[in-house]
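Teaching assistant here, posting this on the class forum so everyone can see the example we discussed in section. The complex has two components, and the goal was to see what a joint structure prediction looks like when all of them are supplied at once.
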Amino acid sequence: MAFSYLDNLPVERAKELFINAVKEAVPIPDEEYVNTADADGRITSKGVYAKICAPHYHASAMDGISVKASDTFGAGETTPIVLRKESFHWVDTGDPIPKGDDAVIMIEEVVREGENVRIFSAASPWQHIRQIGEDLCAGDMILPSFTEITPEAQGALLAGGVINVSVVKRPTVAVIPTGDELVAPCEEPKSGEIIEFNTTIFSSMLKRWGCIPKVWDIQPDEPEKITAALKEAAATCDAVLLSAGSSAGRDDYSVGCIGQVGKVLCHGVAMKPGKPVILAMAGKVPVMGVPGYPVSAVLALQEFFCPVANWLCGRNENGYEFKDSATLCRSVVSSLKYRELVRARLGFVEGKLTAAPLQRGAGVISSLVKADGIIEIEQDREGCEAGEKVPLRCLCDKSKIINSLIVTGSHDPLIDEIADIAKRIDRDAKIASSHVGSTGGLLALKRHEAHMGGIHLLGEDGIYNINAIKSFFEKDEVILVKGVGRIQGLMTAAGNPLGIKDFSDVSKGFRYVNRQGGSGTRVLFDYLCREHGISPQSVNGWNREEMTHTAVAAQIASGTGDLGLGIFSAAKLYGLDFVPVCTENYDFAVLRSAWELPQTKMFISILRSEEFKKRLEALGGYTAENIGEVLQWS
Amino acid sequence: MAFSYLDNLPVERAKELFINAVKEAVPIPDEEYVNTADADGRITSKGVYAKICAPHYHASAMDGISVKASDTFGAGETTPIVLRKESFHWVDTGDPIPKGDDAVIMIEEVVREGENVRIFSAASPWQHIRQIGEDLCAGDMILPSFTEITPEAQGALLAGGVINVSVVKRPTVAVIPTGDELVAPCEEPKSGEIIEFNTTIFSSMLKRWGCIPKVWDIQPDEPEKITAALKEAAATCDAVLLSAGSSAGRDDYSVGCIGQVGKVLCHGVAMKPGKPVILAMAGKVPVMGVPGYPVSAVLALQEFFCPVANWLCGRNENGYEFKDSATLCRSVVSSLKYRELVRARLGFVEGKLTAAPLQRGAGVISSLVKADGIIEIEQDREGCEAGEKVPLRCLCDKSKIINSLIVTGSHDPLIDEIADIAKRIDRDAKIASSHVGSTGGLLALKRHEAHMGGIHLLGEDGIYNINAIKSFFEKDEVILVKGVGRIQGLMTAAGNPLGIKDFSDVSKGFRYVNRQGGSGTRVLFDYLCREHGISPQSVNGWNREEMTHTAVAAQIASGTGDLGLGIFSAAKLYGLDFVPVCTENYDFAVLRSAWELPQTKMFISILRSEEFKKRLEALGGYTAENIGEVLQWS
């Protein structure tokens, strides 16, 4: 094999290598003729000229009569003229002007006298006539080369007699998935089987970029088969994407196989996620080895393949750009070795566009769904500080961010239900929630990076939330809103095979699944331990932290844990047994400055709604007394 | 009929009436299940929850060995531990973690010793393991209601085991064209036949908005047939568009027919173009009578139907908005009776976004193709002054405007050819040309509303362009660039049946087709008349003004004129005879402040190119000596 380790080519250099090779190989893309009626969104391959004039005849622009203007000269209010039936013609809008006539008089200005008409003003030549070529003259260029055809342009082309139009041929792009462990999407994959969804993502992205994806069957990790697929693809398509195996590990055959069919320009770029990228040319056909992790794959395609797709489609090669900037909510550490692309949730808090970094794992596709934008940490930076302005690539309409409610705090599925109800009331509504635990939420409010957060923090005195609020905020900084009463309990396997009875069982050596420090459930755990005289650190599994109730439930359901503290709805979702321990107050802390925002008002009114109470009942494990009331805390 | 004249309902009121009726009739749109793989761009009809965890098993995040972390405790640089083959397992990235193991050690940190391995540091529990639910937990809401599904979301849905997803059903929209004079698109329509291109425009717009258009056959102007088509459409579709006949003229049956199948909410709105609009409900089905003129139709659909389409598709009802503003180049007169929508060409000249109004005829579809934006003159305004800031709806990416070269001046097809060459060099290049005649071009430069303009103005002394430039500009304001030598001559019917010999023939009573005042060709005409001792006003047709060479040629070709002054390429296009009269200098005046712009430099370099010379030869009638040279004029 030509490469035994990865390059670390700077992103811009790698892009340039690839696009320049493509431009040299394909200076002018192929063209084809299509029906103008089917050409919406296509790109012209050359200048398009009108074949006929529009209108193609002199047409009446009004309902009325057509006349020779010279016959009407001298007509006036006091000197009307009578036109005999031989010297005028009745015309409707759009009718051709009879030969010899050169003006139209509106029907409203004509008085009928038997078959004749009386007129009270002279017509000027060519009045109320749409002359030949008013819109387009035969020979006029309607559209230049490499221009997108819009619905209006389709109309102009048809008006100009152009019923077939030469457009850039849509490039076909082969997508070859590889990997022994891959299976087609299904509801019940077996252990070790990975659902192959990357080709679905790739296909949709390619279609959005104007290409025609051609998806190959999943190829096993066998170099001969992969090479054969590549050869076939390069011979029949305009570009090739080889999915997964692009790194330099044991089963990563991509670079070797690509080397068999073409010239490798680069293997490995200084970008994270997305490092193990292969860029190559098989003759005139660009070939890209795409990383297997979905987030790496999406970002690498946007960065390196989108410019190629644009070029092959007849557009300029410009790809995704960092046109905006945002204020970073939390510090991000990065490596000097890479340009790092960080998914972020955007918010407008107190007039500032803020970006809260999301999970960074390259396998976490849901992080790309939650992301409103991508921020960039340049290759020569070791990271960025909270409060710094960072380059931003918006993934959504920025105007929608202004209306979104930023909810940062403790995790509870009821927030997703509120977000769903909000969408059903106002389809533009957006509630962007991040799960950082109760304390994390209060810190975000303190930094003015969120509008509100759910909290359930038990004080030393056994009272919920008030103490925590007091220790963080001045009297007028936040408003505390009554949320739900929430039953916390121990989740354990269905049928309770270990015979868990109450909280004291956590000290019996079973495998406990803990929550992260700062979360309300962790605070409750520590409080309960103290009450039961248990040392938290002595609990088996104390070190193993999960971020949400459902994550704890999932561990127990999978058999890698025996019990964990959490809420009833999570246990119910996973069919676990639930041993109630106590009822806690899960309330909402709202930044005073956000209190009057329409999105906050909507949130509070949903809290108080019957629809929401129904959803709480369906989830189970909640009480809703005085929900939505403002609590006094000073 | 219920209405014998048009209402003049304010636009906002009419919109509100219509959308509120639709929202009441269809509070929640229909839903359907589609394959997740086909769901890109669709809108969820309800919240979508993960069915399985992703990953759905504990997976190795690295190539290496899986171990029980507790077996490794105590290992260090100086105290390595040997693991026997029974106590670890070889794993690749993505492999399931064998039961009992709870950590992965990277292959790089492992030293093989026969079948055993030696390790030099302890593993912490769950290191390098992608735990169950790291991405998504079963039961997590992946997307709330009424949210667009993106390629990334498709991936997350499949990862969460959602292989079918409930989405809003695409509404089907009936499009019924009416009119005896309409014919299907073709290259050779007969006189009086109008090419029916509106349904093509409507269909493409509807598809872009997420609807499925269903196009009916063209209906003749017979109320019974139109009513029958409406009934069938309202019974089988989710919305109905009835095209043309929506006014109150003789053959305008739409409102009567719509009244037969539903309730008319409004007939006639205070908007121009687009006044004769009918808004109605046939039970739960919105019905719109759309004006027949294409520009009126497009603007009325954007204004009134786009919000309805959005609502039926599961989006919010927001339609086209005036979000930007621009500085008006020329004053626009408007009526207090209407909100006027004016198509405009946008430009960035000296840092200011300017809007130059285009042709206002409601039939001129090409004006919508040339337009970069729509400006709005409010209903209570009698017009707007040049220099005023006006509300703007951008029709293109504003960033592209910055790069466009604004060429305003005399018409010549060579400018379109340069625009085409520019696109083939840089696909983002845009040359926006307006034909306002030579003098109009100089005035636009003087007002700093254009970067350059083509001029051919003959001075009293028989010298071209220099005098005109001197009379408008100070020495450093503009640069004059040598353009082409252009043969002007008399165009006349093929075979020259009238026996035109030279310019003096214009005084012989033939029907002359003149050019507008201020155009270089008009100045030349006046100069030649003076030379030949002819009084211009005495020429038959002196009053009849056309705006371009091709428009003059089109009139002569159609037989409504006998001769006209113009350039060879226009005569050639229409197969006319051409009697050469003189060669004139068609040069370019360039604003000094625009001289260094990249788009200006590209224009000049194209002028000097071989490719351009080839195109001039193909057009015919030009000389290209010293083309692109800067001319000294002070």
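For the discussion questions: The two ends of chain B are 71 Å apart (CA to CA). Chain B has a mean pLDDT of 93. Think about how each of these relates to the inputs above.
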